[in-house]
Amino acid sequence: MSKHVLVVDDSASIRQMVEFTLKGAGYSVTAARDGEEALSLCKSNTYDCVLTDQNMPKMDGITLIKSLRTLPAYSRKPILVLTTEAGDAMKAQGRAAGATGWMVKPFDPKSLLDVAAKVMA
Amino acid sequence: MSVDLKQFHQVFFEESQEHLDTMEQLLMTLDLQQPDAEELNSIFRAAHSIKGGSGIFGFDALGSVTHVMENLLDRLRKGLQQPDTELVDGLLKAVDHLGVLLLQYRQDEVIDWNFVAQATSHVETLLADGVSQGSDKDKSAPYGLFEDPVLPDRAEEKWGLFEGIESGPEKSEAFGFFEPLPGAIDGAKESAESEAGDSAFGFFDEPASGVVAEELGSSSGEKSGLVAAPGKPPAPKSVAGKKMPGVSPTKMVATESTSIRVDVDKVDKLINLVGELVITQSMLAVLGKDLDEQQAERMQNVLGELERNTREIQESVMSIRMLPVSFVFNRFPRVVRDLSAKLGKDIDLHIEGGNTELDKSLIEKLVDPLTHLVRNSIDHGIESPKARAAAGKPATGRVTLTAAQQGGNIIIGIHDDGGGLNRDRILSKAEENGLSASDTMSDEDVWALIFQPGFSTAEVVTDVSGRGVGMDVVRRNISSLGGRIEVSSTPGQGSVFTIVLPLTLAIVDGMGVRVGDQTYIIPLVNIVESMQPPEKSVKTLGKDVLLHVRDYYWPVLPLYQKMNVKPDCVDPEKAIVVLVETSKRRFGLMVDELVGQQQVVIKSLEKHYRRIPGVAGATIMGDGSVALILDVESLASSVVDPVNLEEIA
């Protein structure tokens, strides 16, 4: 069974691009457009990995990660933050929130797949 | 694996345009004294999203401008810099620059990098003094450092997790993993191993957690860092509450409704098909009439069903194309802002009825005429603050844009509280320009002069309202949309321009009427009632025929004369008179017979033949014949003036 990835980003073009890339590599992908939508999806589905943007309306990535980590099903699931802010503060936040790792935008499809393969190995 | 990113470009362009619009709108309404945190956040997010996307899709020009904008916006949202008018102006300009660049990418044009450099440095100048480029770079560097004390203190992170990636240590990190704290687990070894490779992403390890240790023990060194999960999840609630203080959920929900993007051509095709369906359905109705009684009844039921469904499909399809008028209206705060600054006039813009929906094609074609009218109101309508003070008016002028649906029409109004149209000046200008004008003309006729080609009332030609070539073009544009424009004005109190547009362009509910061997369609919205005139209610006055019904003398217009066809009857008392109403007049149309009410699909006559006075278009009837759709508004102009009629009455 293919691994199921949840992609969370408020930008439709990035959602589509990530979705397309991952699907091309054989993952099944679900997309959400903000943290709130992602959180409610996660409550009813179990994904093997969550890739989330940081800056989003309604609920940002860090809040999403923190919320997900309170759910038993997601206490150990890999969660990656996609962000354009690669500053220390951002990483410290990510770490504190319980993220597995981060990935800096822009990224190319290949490194996306590399990371995905690593975290879902 | 190679991914063709081009396929996502269109979505990116549209999305970015939306972000630009959002930025512009929010910047316009930003309260400089007490900027709303969530609004600043939204502006930041918009710039941020464009930057993120342009990075991925390789639109570097957009990326470099949004990059500096983002820094500035970040300072604003963090309260490090206070927004002022100058700054907002600068940001608006930057938004314009981005719009230009976006268009260039969209049209596959060569990017002018000088322009990009200018745009970038333009934003940089907006950064408050004391913000060095150094700290600026720090914040937005494409890589970052662990705070982890284990790490050597240098700019590039070198982790061995992805040895397969060929890139030197100079290449910046684009992702990374969080390492466990020193000594907690043997992840340190891994970090040492990974020194050589380039870290393009990062993983966070939960510091010193039992779970981590356990996982590590059972998996290889390299993987162990990745699957590490936090043993004790942090409580998120308080943070969630704190981070989103000013979010107004309703606002967000409204803009984030579930939607898909569809090519307008596809929708247009659907609309055409529905049009054909309406025609097919009326053909079936004609066929149904020839059946014997028993079958006819069953047929009627089925046809009724078909008609209802067709109508619903048609309404649904039309609604896809409908957009709120605010799509046009929302550009005006910017126009007004720029203009009032340029002209030194203080102007308040009010918008009412922005939710009124209108066909997308109409919306797009409304932009130019409306822009012209608004500019005109500000330039010519609203007086200078001095003149306003002298006239005892508030110094701040007021321009109001309104939209409302009225029956099958959309009424758009541009109101200003300026000096109103100057009758004498219009008349003298008209004479100068060789237009036929006289002092005895009614106000309405005088106002109509400003729509004549080559007319300009501005004493000084400004670059704001152009050279007076506009108003006739405005009128022509609007009538090409099937609408019309009217103006009313009160000296000293202002003017109102009213645009009346049909709700849709494609299908109309009409009444079929027969004159001789021709069928005509009268739009249902115009019809008051139809009748065979009672005896003695018909009066003749010279050449004009009047019908006295309900205490009103209705001038009767024999349709056969207008259309030049041979009728069955010329005597109004034996014919049928359809009483119609337009915005200006009420009158009766004399026809031979009523054929029946039906929906008709409007086909443009101009496209296939040529424009005919009094005819709005043509349609195909159920029996395959062509019927002309009457333009009641323009027929009204050939009717006797009701004012004179009342005198007679």
TrEMBL record, chain A:
Pfam family, one: Response_reg
PTM-bearing positions, type 4-aspartylphosphate: D53
The protein's name in its UniProt record: Response regulator
Domain Response regulatory: 4-120
Domain of life assignment: Bacteria
SMART domains per UniProt: REC
Record's keyword terms, sorted: Phosphoprotein
TrEMBL record, chain B:
A Pfam family it matches: CheW
Enzyme Commission no: 2.7.13.3
Residue ranges of coiled coil: 289-316
Record-annotated CheW-like domain positions: 507-641
Residue stretches making up the HPt domain: 1-105
Catalyzed reactions: ATP + protein L-histidine = ADP + protein N-phospho-L-histidine
Modified residues (Phosphohistidine): H48
Molecular function (Gene Ontology), one example: protein histidine kinase activity
Functional description taken from the UniProt entry: Involved in the transmission of sensory signals from the chemoreceptors to the flagellar motors. CheA is autophosphorylated; it can transfer its phosphate group to either CheB or CheY.
Protein's recorded name: Chemotaxis protein CheA
